[in-house]
Amino acid sequence: MTTDDSFPWPWQHDFPPFYTLQPNADTRRKQEEAWCTLILSYCKHYKTHQLDVAEISAGPLFNNKSIQRKLATEHIVGILNVLSKKGHVEWLDTNKKSCIIMWRTPEEWGKLIYDWAKSFGLMNTVCTLYELTNGEDSAGQEFHGIENWLLVRALKTLQSSGKAELISLGEANDGVKFF
């Protein structure tokens, strides 16, 4: 993952105890929550959807060279497991070496897309998936440019709640109808 200096690091990132698992259960819960927030913000900022644990552990997210602190790999996996329970992470292997990360859950993306479709008067209208992610009408929306696999997952949450129906119009022209 390439990074730049534009990410706004929270104060905890420069706080040495942040990198050590805290023994007090309440403090540890707050620490895990802060790490979860940081990871999701970081991935959102860099529009990252896949993490390799070894690679990310060496990068600036978990390795703050300015204070010479690094979060242990087992703690990184533990925090990613917390995010998994919240629906933000899916492990790609049983050894938990790489994962898909979603800074918004598919349900959250679905709600965002549905609210946009309602506001644009797209009820009972078929839109191609390409139009949703690359069209002029969605420019400036958070979901503009979203990866297709995540878009389909988001739309499936709408389909399961009766708010949309996925339509296959041929491989390159799949669409969705909003209700």
Would you give an account of this structure?
The chain has 179 residues and is of the alpha+beta class. The protein has two domains: 11-101, "Winged helix" DNA-binding domain. Chain C. Domain 1 (Arc Repressor Mutant, subunit A), CATH 1.10.10; 106-178, Winged helix-like DNA-binding domain superfamily/Winged helix DNA-binding domain (Arc Repressor Mutant, subunit A, Orthogonal Bundle), CATH 1.10.10. Helices cover 41% and strands 14% of the residues. It has six helices and eight strands, in the order H-E-H-E-E-H-E-E-H-E-H-H-E-E. The strands form three sheets. The chain has a three-stranded antiparallel beta sheet. A three-stranded antiparallel beta sheet has the order 6-8-7. Strands 2-3 form a two-stranded antiparallel sheet. Helix 4 (106-119) crosses helix 6. The protein is elongated and about 55 Å long.
**Can you name the CATH architecture of the largest domain?**
Orthogonal Bundle
Number of domains: 2
Low-confidence segments: none
Coarse structural class? alpha+beta
Spatial strand arrangement across the major sheet: 1-5-4
Q: CATH H-level name of the largest domain... which superfamily?
A: "Winged helix" DNA-binding domain. Chain C. Domain 1
Order of helices and strands: HEHEEHEEHEHHEE
Number of helices: 6
Rg, please? 19 Å
Distance between the termini: 39 Å
- According to DSSP, the number of beta strands is 8
Question: Please, what is the average pLDDT?
Answer: 93
CATH topology of the largest domain: Arc Repressor Mutant, subunit A
Main sheet attributes: strand count, strand direction, barrel closure: 3 strands, antiparallel
What is the CATH C level class of the largest domain, in words?
A: Mainly Alpha
